[in-house]
């Protein structure tokens, strides 16, 4: 018969301790917008900023809105944006994305619905699972879609390689059975910069050559 002490030791030996990300580097991190494509982010309408503690970066859109209703163009029901970013990090470090928070505001009439889709990936590597969420009217409120990755599943930028970071998003509004004389819209922008899409870094030290 296994003693209580031995059983406890055996139980502890089978516990799997998940990997822990390294603390962020203290050096400067910069992000350059290489290309901007899509009807939801005309040139100059997307701004990127790194947080002071190097734990995240934000993307703020100033003209990203899909809508249906009076005064809307036939193509306004769907807007999309593709950003290609060059992330410059201190030597000896690499990064992945632990969590992405996509935010905006929706004003949907009863019978209408709005959908947000989002994904991200490193250039030349597999796309992340696309996250999608649909909101039904009547609704007039902020919305948020969170894309969280387990620490063990985080994909890191390959050390020693140059691969840009790509962000793909889409907004779509369907008028459904709503009053055609009323406007419904879904936005991923903010005139005062208070609504931001946030990408939370996961850091790792590169092996020394």
From TrEMBL:
Q: Where is the signal peptide?
A: 1-21
- Protein name, per record: DUF4360 domain-containing protein
Q: Enumerate the UniProt keywords alphabetically.
A: Signal
